[in-house]
Specification:
This protein has helices spanning 16-25, 36-53, 78-81, 86-91, 115-130, 181-193, 208-211, 219-231, 244-247, 259-275, 301-312, 342-347, 408-416, 428-432, 463-474, 480-491, 496-516, 573-580, 590-593, 608-631, 639-671; strands at 29-30, 67-72, 97-102, 107-112, 139-142, 148-152, 172-173, 176-177, 198-200, 235-240, 281-284, 318-322, 358-363, 387-392, 442-447, 554-555, 596-597. Helix 2 packs parallel to helix 5 (115-130), helix 16 packs across helix 17 (496-516) and helix 20 runs antiparallel to helix 21 (639-671). Strand 3 (97-102) and strand 4 (107-112) form a beta hairpin. The strands form 4 sheets. An 8-stranded parallel barrel has the order 6-9-10-11-12-13-14-15. The protein has a 5-stranded mixed sheet with strand order 1-2-4-3-5. The longest helix is centred in the last third of the chain and has 33 residues, at 639-671. It is built from 21 helices and 17 strands. The chain starts with 15 loop residues before the first helix and ends in an 11-residue tail after the last helix. 37% of the residues lie in helices and 11% in strands. It is an alpha/beta fold. Bound molecules: beta-D-glucopyranuronic acid. InterPro entries: A-glucoronidase_C_sf, GH, Glyco_hydro_67_aGlcAse, Glyco_hydro_67_aGlcAse_N, Glyco_hydro_67_C, Glyco_hydro_67_cat, Hex-like_dom2. It holds the Pfam family Glyco_hydro_67C. Belongs to the glycosyl hydrolase 67 family. Residues 458-679 form the Glycosyl hydrolase family 67 C-terminal domain.
Length: 682
């Protein structure tokens, strides 16, 4: 009851009217295939139905008994095959499913082209039941919009997690693979239930020990993990160290154009595929934050990526190459080097040079997962390159799962953002899903927020981000509210009043967090290294390229073409003009693009300084309201769930005050301008 079963809790309290329907259809399951994923799907369906309906489910319906049948289109019993038309089968594509209730056949059938599709169909049906939907007239065709729906773990072999806020790793402990197979299976179930089909199991910063994952020392254990994932339709990926040929291969170079190096990777790939026949491929962080890469040898990133791609190609593997490349040793006195420009400047010139089995992984914004950033201008700029968007589920800069920040609204906004590529209407979601330019490899990746905490995500409500990411990767057209509703109903209750309280909390949380932290898109006012809590100048005189340039007159980074770094010109169409213009730039990103006096008047009618004061006072009040709203649920939801969230919201309310006071005080001291309302500033 701690949240361990998350959205697969299969709570019993279902509404009466529908319950009757569920009982009628859910009395028996017909599943005839031996294939392991289909077996897992049937087992999941039985588990879910029995828990939610409180009766046992048989494997053989009586004559004329309503029942659920599941299987692949090719192997379903002939009796059910006519339930699916050619058109539907085509529309379900490789990974999707069709669900149909047929009274004439006494059957609710779940069909798919692949076993994974059947599994997704089962989870969809369970979700319908868990959220109280009617099931006796179903005709659903659903196919994932994105090809890759990927999770990145930043877990280290010693058991720590880079930017992990839910305890240590449940994959590794003290340089060993975990023995807790049950937890791994539960994790795989949970991921499959929202459509995840790819997981990279180790940190993109690959240290010495993890470099050995691709050697005989650890490959057998990596393979065991892949076996568990495979049952649930998930392919395993590894982050690799670009310097592996030197570190574990005994070569003197990792130069991608050296024949020895190429040969080494070719052999390595064969070795990996011998152990894991469906191995997904490599995730690579190169020439970034002190990681090795092709630059050392005077080669560019296309040469580096393509060399690995050649090695994986014969086995059907791919290279996921990250675009998080910038100078992290910048002199803060240098006002011309702009970190925000870096990804575009590095990768735009390489468009069209990557092999077909390479995909670039691009962070959603140009900097690094701040609470508010513009969308990365690379989206829309790479017409001839496969690409994935990278989100951060783990709340590194958004409260570290101590503060509530439901991120789905942020991701939605990003996915809907119009890039103006190819004319008028080209939202990021269509670049990412590959439909704009017909990219073969496409989709989403995200840094996960899970750890060995019993509820997976530390803050129970942060589970909604993990759930939401998967749902959005499957279908980016779902709304943030819809996703929140599903999660709330599956985890807590179908009670409308309870639902509304929790939904209100989730939906307001991003804006609340934004309001008491760094203002107007400037970001970065956090403590160095761990990134929790306020520190206005924490990164101001550092080499990381993350500045706000506040002085006694004003604040902000001038990224205009005329007087600034010219970053705004990396955008297309109206975006470039809007961001470049002081007059038209949206308030929420003003300080990202412009350096302005504190007296500058926003579209809202307030001055920048008064906006900072007001927003921070209001933010603290709104954070306190989160706690009082949650308190109204005491006694109405399970105590174990209630109390863990209460504890976090209490910390948030207190900590928001610290943010307010440090930010407001800083700007009052810098500017000397009084708060119009004469509230307490220190
Ligand atoms: C930053 C993190 C750092 C990661 C890096 C990355 O602070 O720990 O290694 O991103 O994405 O957000 O590689």
């Amino acid at each position: 009851e701690s949240g361990y079963h998350a959205w697969l809790s299969y709570n019993k309290a279902l509404p009466g009217a529908q319950l009757e329907q569920y009982r009628q259809w859910g009395g028996a399951i017909v599943s005839l295939e031996e294939q392991e994923t289909i077996q897992a799907a049937a087992a999941e369906l039985k588990l879910g139905l029995e828990a939610m309906l409180g009766h046992s489910v048989s494997a053989a319906p009586n004559q004329g008994q309503l029942h659920i049948a599941l299987g692949t289109f090719d192997s379903l019993h002939v009796r059910y095959q006519s339930l699916f038309s050619e058109k539907e089968i085509e529309a379900a594509e490789a990974e999707g499913f069709v669900i149909r209730t047929s009274h004439a056949d006494s059957c609710l059938a779940i069909g798919a082209a692949s076993p994974a599709g059947v599994l997704y169909g089962v989870f969809h049906l369970l979700r319908l039941i868990g959220t109280g939907a009617a099931i006796d007239e179903l005709a659903i065709i659903s196919a994932p919009v994105n090809g890759l729906r990927m999770i990145n773990h930043w877990d280290n072999f010693d058991g720590s997690i880079e930017r992990g806020y839910a305890g240590n790793s449940f994959l590794y402990k003290n340089n060993r693979f975990t023995e807790d197979q049950e937890r791994l299976r539960d994790y795989a179930r949970m991921m499959a239930s929202v459509g995840i089909n790819a997981i990279a199991i180790n940190n993109v910063n690959v240290h010495q020990e993890e470099t050995l994952f691709i050697t005989p020392t650890y490959l057998p254990q990596v393979a065991k993990l892949a076996d568990i994932f495979r049952v649930y339709g998930i392919r395993l990926y590894l982050s690799i160290n670009f310097a592996s040929p030197i570190q574990i291969g005994g070569l003197e170079t990792a130069d991608p154009l050296e024949l020895d190096v190429q040969g080494w990777w070719n052999n390595k790939a064969s070795e990996i595929y011998a152990a894991i026949p469906d191995f997904g491929g490599f995730l690579v962080k190169a020439d970034s934050e002190n990681r090795p890469g092709p630059f050392t040898y005077g080669r560019d990133h296309a040469e580096g990526a393509n060399m690995l791609a050649e090695a994986l190609l014969p086995h059907g593997g791919i290279v996921i190459w990250r675009c998080f490349v910038y100078n992290c040793k910048q002199d803060w006195r240098d006002r011309k080097t702009d970190r925000a420009r870096a990804a575009y400047d590095h990768f735009k010139p390489l468009d069209g040079r990557f092999n077909d089995n390479v995909v670039l992984q691009i962070k959603n914004g140009p900097l690094d997962f701040q609470v508010r950033e513009p969308v990365s201008p690379l989206f829309g700029a790479l017409e001839h390159t496969n690409q994935l968007i990278e989100f951060q589920i783990t709340q590194e800069y958004t409260g570290q799962q101590r503060h509530l920040c439901y991120l789905v609204p942020q991701w939605k906004e990003i996915l809907e953002f119009n890039t103006y590529a190819e004319g008028e209407k080209a939202p990021v979601k269509r670049v990412v899903d590959g439909s704009l330019w017909g990219n073969r490899i496409n989709g989403m990746a995200a840094v996960t927020n899970v750890g060995e905490d019993w509820n997976w995500s530390g803050h129970l409500l942060a589970q909604a981000n993990l759930y939401g990411y998967g749902r959005l990767a499957w279908n980016p057209d779902l709304t943030a509210e819809q996703i929140a509703s599903e999660w709330i109903q599956l985890v807590f209750s179908l009670d409308a009043a309870i639902h509304d309280v929790i939904s209100g909390l989730l939906m307001d949380s991003w804006s609340i967090y934004e309001s008491y932290t760094a203002p107007l898109g400037i970001g970065w006012m956090v403590n160095p290294n761990h990134h929790y809590g306020p520190n206005v100048d924490g990164y101001e005189y550092s080499p990381w390229g993350t500045y706000h340039f506040a002085d006694h007159k004003g604040i902000g980074v001038d990224r205009t073409v005329q007087t600034g770094t010219g970053y705004s010109a990396q955008y297309m169409g109206a975006n470039a003009e809007v961001y470049n213009s002081l007059e038209h730039c949206p308030d929420e990103l003003l300080l990202f693009f412009h350096h302005v006096p504190y007296t500058h008047v926003l579209h809202s009618g307030k001055t920048v300084i008064q906006h900072i004061y007001d927003n921070h006072f209001e933010g603290v009040e709104r954070a306190a309201q989160l706690l009082s709203a949650w308190s109204s649920l005491q006694g109405r939801i399970k105590e174990e769930l209630y109390s863990q969230v209460e504890e976090r919201l209490r910390e948030q309310a207190r900590h928001a005050e610290e943010w307010r006071d440090q930010i407001n005080t800083y700007f009052w001291r810098k500017s000397g301008i009084e708060d119009k309302h004469h509230r307490k500033i220190y």
